[in-house]
Amino acid sequence: MLAEPSRAAMVLALMDGRSRNAKKLALDAGVTPQTASAHLKKLLRSRILVCEGRGRSKYFSLAGAEVALAVEALSEIGRGPLPAAARELRFARCCYDHLAGQLGVTVTEQLFRPGNTILEDLKIRIPDTSRRPLFRCCTDWTERRPHVAGAVGAALLRHFKTEGWLATVRESRKLVVTPRGRELFVRVLGVEETIFR
Amino acid sequence: MLAEPSRAAMVLALMDGRSRNAKKLALDAGVTPQTASAHLKKLLRSRILVCEGRGRSKYFSLAGAEVALAVEALSEIGRGPLPAAARELRFARCCYDHLAGQLGVTVTEQLFRPGNTILEDLKIRIPDTSRRPLFRCCTDWTERRPHVAGAVGAALLRHFKTEGWLATVRESRKLVVTPRGRELFVRVLGVEETIFR
DNA sequence: CAAACGGTTCGACGGCGGTCGAAGTGTTCC
DNA sequence: GGAACACTTCGACCGCCGTCGAACCGTTTG
What we know:
The structure is a homodimer. Chain A has helices at 5-13, 22-29, 33-45, 65-76, 86-91, 102-111, 118-121, 150-162, 179-187, and strands spanning 20-21, 49-54, 57-62, 93-95, 98-100, 136-139, 146-149, 166-168, 175-177. The first copy, chain A, is an alpha+beta fold. Chain A binds a DNA duplex through residues 4-6, 21-23, 31-41, 55-58.
């Protein structure tokens, strides 16, 4: 649906969230009204657009936030340099302001063990100043499993850095586990020794 | 790129984050190796996949988080019922075998409060028989925030149903909070009274 | 070295689908 | 009522691109 140039042009034209009529969209896409009509019909059927018929004109707009999110997500692909160093990032890296990679998902799983007292043991304090959700999760793209984000995720990474468990690498998202960190991850968080290779 | 069925099949096959060789991907997509080769070439050029040549085999995997995000975002489009019955499902429903909706994300947030003892209080036992991940999360499509899934999510919903907190509605994913459940959600899980309207 | 195998290139075929002209329906406005 | 207009349907055309057979290259294995 979004792959076809004319349809893509129409959807992109609607990315501002406003609505337009069919003729305007035909112009945006550089096709005749008949062609546009066929495309718009398909876009409606596949729930990408919705329309509201006002009089003899029909006004089209994006069907919802999911559409806008998907279009934005697609436009992110292929930017940036090739990840020759991908492997290095796989074990531990930061994802915005929280921990990701094998270590990230492992820590997250530990947090979910019934009876764990990790957040208290580390004396993690969550600043409740913001409207930020306490907890979010990203699906880790290397692990395809969730790691903790949100306020809790940020607080954890902050702790690991200030307490010298993890060190950052300049100009990179890579994180390095210090010897001290390695010992503490195992002893305090119950992480398997083996994941450190 | 992602619109073509064979390529989509290959990319979906790689959505678990692991890597596969060209022949395996050809099989997944149901095409011959020549055809797969052509597709893989294009997917590499457009930075959707990366490959690592080990010996005479080449191992392909997703190029990065953006790709996984985009694919997931695309899969969200057009899901869900039309707005008429949507409202009813919004508050509480089951998502496969776990709890979703406003109540689902709220419970999930409670689980992440530092110092909570919810899983022990409820005497939740996680069967560790399976290879099933202890914890997964779905992004709730109505709430746009994560709710707990995986073994923990399933155990929780099972508990809520067997203990009479929630009642199922036949032929529907809808879940109804019983008066008993309502009281317990507030007292035991610390859910805000107000979300029950 | 020969055989097997993974991956690639080339060329030919065929179908799906985007395109537009022409014509049809319904609405608005004078 | 009639003209202008927004949108749709139909039909025919045509080009792009996915497909596979055959042949080719390079690595691995015995």
